[in-house]
Amino acid sequence: MAKLNTLNPPSSLNKGINWRALYKLTKPKVVALIVLTAVVGACLATSGLPPWQALLVGNLGIGLMAAGAAAFNHYIDSEADAAMARTHKRPLPTGAIANWQALLWASLLSVVGFAMLYWWVNPLTAWLTAASLVGYAVIYTLWLKRATPQNIVIGGLAGAMPPLLGWTAVNNAISAEPLLLVMLIFTWTPPHFWALAIARREDYAKVNIPMLPVTHGVGFTKKLIVLYSLLLFAVAWLPFLVGMSGVLYLVLSCALNLRFMHLAWRLYKGDNQRDAMRLFAFSIVYLMLLFVALLADHWLFALL
Ligand code: HEM
Ligand SMILES: CC(C)=CCC/C(C)=C/CC/C(C)=C/COP(=O)(O)OP(=O)(O)O
User: Fold this and answer.
1) Ligand 2 in contact with 189 (CB < 6 A)?
2) CA dist 178 to 7, 60, 170, 302, Å?
3) ipTM of the complex as predicted
4) Ligand 1 centroid vs 49 CA: distance in angstroms?
5) Ligand with an atom nearest the CA of residue 129
6) Which of 24, 34, 121 to mutate for ligand 2's pocket (most ligand atoms within 8 Å of CB)?
7) 38-to-57, 115, 137, 168, 175 alpha-carbon distances in Å
8) Which residues cross the membrane (predicted)?
């Protein structure tokens, strides 16, 4: 839990607002991908162009709340972050900003995002996004992360929600199609994260965070990565099988999944550090292109 410590000296209180540090607290690249998946969810919710208010204000609200969740995560994890090689240069461990500033920033982003969704989009989307924020910032970061090696499997549900949030921003109702997209991200999360966790195993062991490669070993984690990659391939067929997406999506998603499985297999057989980071990097490109493929396919069929 965050406390003022020697690595985060009170001198940071006197420096004014460090906008760069506040920006970094929002995990901007993660939030960008989250918003992309929400935009695609919003676009798939209707056969034409979604209403501008749902599209623009909806995704802005979702993005602000995701950024708020990320800032809460930095605040709650600042001591563990200070001890890990990957994270020790983050704004809180270096003292670039004070803990109270991070907490205020996280609260501000979350409240503004929630208000936008509640009043200008719809209460359903506001409450579902709030549930995702609590799922990530409180349930995952504060509890699950240190409680069980299944932390990221269960916590992954929060990060998987954005396509549904985009959809409800447009339709104000939950239906089966966006839940398939949630399932896609939910299945993608374990291989996305465990690849990185293999490469950064020492870090997690040092701070006693029970990530799977620490508790069950690298060999077991690699096996699960291969199994989840197979499951991901199967789940990626579903939008086509239920008639939600067409052949363009099917071809592109198969190509992406073959590459994913190839890299997962290479990690299984090969070098922990290099092959793990390769799979981790590709997992991000994969999710981005998969959602672009869903959108391209949707619009192609809308035009034909
Ligand atoms: C519980 C679920 C998840 C866990 C545990 C997780 C974990 C991580 C970790 C530890 C990193 C490295 C961050 C760093 O080095 O600063 C990362 C990077 C990343 N993750 Fe995830 N992730 C999850 C879900 C997601 C979701 C849902 C998305 C987007 C839809 C996502 C997109 C990204 C991106 C784009 C990066 C690269 C960030 C950068 O290079 O700055 N992740 N993830
Ligand atoms: C829509 C909404 C409000 C959703 C919030 C979802 C959200 C921001 C998910 C981010 C997922 C992520 C980067 C997890 C890593 O946390 P970590 O603490 O394991 O990784 P770290 O050590 O890099 O901080």
Assistant:
1) no
2) 43, 19, 12, 18
3) 0.97
4) 29
5) 2
6) 34
7) 12, 18, 19, 10, 15
8) 30-49, 55-76, 97-120, 126-144, 151-174, 180-199, 220-240, 246-267, 279-301
Provide the residue-wise pLDDT of the chain in tens; the chain has 304 residues: 444 444 444 444 455 789 999 999 999 999 999 999 999 999 999 998 999 999 999 999 999 999 999 999 999 999 999 999 999 999 999 999 999 999 999 999 999 999 999 999 999 999 999 999 999 999 999 999 999 999 999 999 999 999 999 999 999 999 999 999 999 999 999 999 999 999 999 999 999 999 999 999 999 999 999 999 999 999 999 999 999 999 999 999 999 999 999 999 999 999 789 999 999 999 999 999 999 999 999 998 776 7
- The CA distance from 262 to 229, in Å, is 9
Q: Is the CB of 27 under 6 A from ligand 2?
A: yes
113 and 128, same structural domain? yes
Instruction: Tell me how long the chain is.
Output: 304
Question: Left if phi > 0, otherwise alpha if psi is -120 to 50, otherwise beta: which for 249?
Answer: alpha
Alpha-carbon distance values, 18 to 34, 61, 189, 293 (Å): 25, 23, 32, 38
Q: Are residues 165 and 193 in the same domain?
A: no
- Whether 34 and 154 share a structural domain: yes
CA of 33 to the centre of ligand 2 (A): 12
Widest distance between CA atoms in the chain: 63
Are 132 and 48 in the same domain? yes
Query: Of 131, 152, 174, which marks where a domain is finished?
Result: 174
Q: How many domains does the chain have?
A: 2
Q: CB of 33 closer than 6 A to ligand 1?
A: yes
Taking each helix axis as running N to C, give the angle between helix 123-133 and helix 58-76, from 0 to 180 degrees, rounded to the nearest 10: 20
Do 2 and 116 belong to one domain? yes
Q: How far is the CA of 30 from the centre of ligand 1 (A)?
A: 6
